[in-house]
Amino acid sequence: MSVIIKEIDNNDKSLKKAFVKFPIKDLYKDSPYYVPSLILDELGTLDTKKNPAFDFCEMQLFLAYKNNKIVGRIGAVINHRANEIWAKKQGRFTFVDFIDDNEVVDALFAAAEKWLKSKGMETIIGPLGFTDLDPEGLLIQGYDQVSTMATKYSYPYYVTQIERLGFVKDADWREFRIPVPSEIPERHQRIANMIAQRYGLKLLKFESFKQITPYVTKVFKCLNEAYKPLYGFSSLTQRQIDHYVKMYVPLLRWDVVQIIIKEETDEVVGFGISMPSLSDALIKSRGKLFPFGWFHLLRALKGKKNKVVDLLIMGILPEYQGKGLNAMIFCDFIPSAHKCGFKFAESNPELEMNNKMVSLWDGFDAENHKMRRAYIKDIK
Asked: What's the pLDDT tens digit per position in 320-347?
């Protein structure tokens, strides 16, 4: 039987739920490396009313069926803000999963490309989400490694299938696994003390959401400036900032959050935000918060047995980059991570071309254990 493609109407909650559940229930049900997202979070991301990215993005979702069974999915996205900033007519593919079947893959990508062309797009890139804080890149190395909450796992055949369609490399990201040092390197301590004095900087620590509230918007302002030159980035709006604060701040562990300010102005000039790894908890929950998913997540966040911390995001204002602010962050992070019982840190994907980020791990015995790739193709 030939492949049938269904275009999902935005108001069709049943098909949206099937779209979200396909990789969890079927494709990756036996994979020990796949980390499912919470189903409720995924549905919220696809909701045009709940996700503020829809203020400047369009999206169309597709499901592939064969023998009356779902065998693949893909989303087509246009980020109009990013296209305006980077002067491109570019569409994105996202939420892409499929069985290893040429006919299925051909039909899925043909549907996404046809929709994007109808909107005037000239190239298609991906996998990328709505914004830079969504999962980015297709796994091309590290298939025997457990994913993080912020990334997507994929089987090795995805690369073969996508390249078969004529997609080529556009950008790569690296991920690192870093053993937490037993003590602060002397070099970092020396640099941290020197730059704090030279630039009048102070590292802030928090014990509650109430304490950090005055700095939340300042942190995102710093993020927007720090990430402005990076691949495909578009600045976060206030509605997006409020959305991400609501989603992620309640999950933070204050021990491993660092914010650096310039004391004279109270301006945030750099930050490092980490949280306990939720990978094992999400695997056990299978994407469900109830009846027991919440217990696994709570234990991972607050318990003492979690040995892995995820380095969610780090940002430093452009004028302070290369001056050693990372040393200030590490000088607090290392003893704090030890106190929490963490033995390893997992970095988020870091652009291969972003040498300043990649060089952060020099001297830390870091292992580049995963790589991801964004692909591009002309569809004019």
From this structure: 998 989 999 999 999 999 999 999 999 9
CA distance 261 to 80: 33
Extract the tokens encoding 372. 């991801």
Q: Which of 218, 224, 311, 291 is nearest to 259 (CA)?
A: 218
pTM over 0.90: yes
**Beta carbons within 10 angstroms of residue 253's beta carbon:** 17
pLDDT band with cut points at 50, 70 and 90 for residue 238: very high
CA distance 260 to 270: 5
**Within the chain, where are the H helices?**
13-22, 39-45, 80-86, 102-118, 157-164, 186-199, 209-227, 238-248, 279-285, 293-302, 325-340, 355-358
The DSSP bridge pattern shows strands 344-347 and 57-66 to be unpaired
Using an 8 Å Cβ cutoff, are 137 and 374 in contact?
Answer: yes
Short-list 243, 301, 236, 216, CA closest to 44: 243
Number of Cβ within a 10 Å radius of residue 322? 11
Q: Are 248 and 262 in contact (CB under 8 A)?
A: no
- Express each pLDDT in 103-131 by its tens digit: 999 999 999 999 999 999 999 999 999 98
CB 201 within 8 A of CB 249: no
Two tokens at 369? 């254990």
Q: Which of 312, 310, 316 is nearest to 328 (CA)?
A: 316
Check if the beta carbon of residue 130 is closer than 8 Å to that of residue 109: no
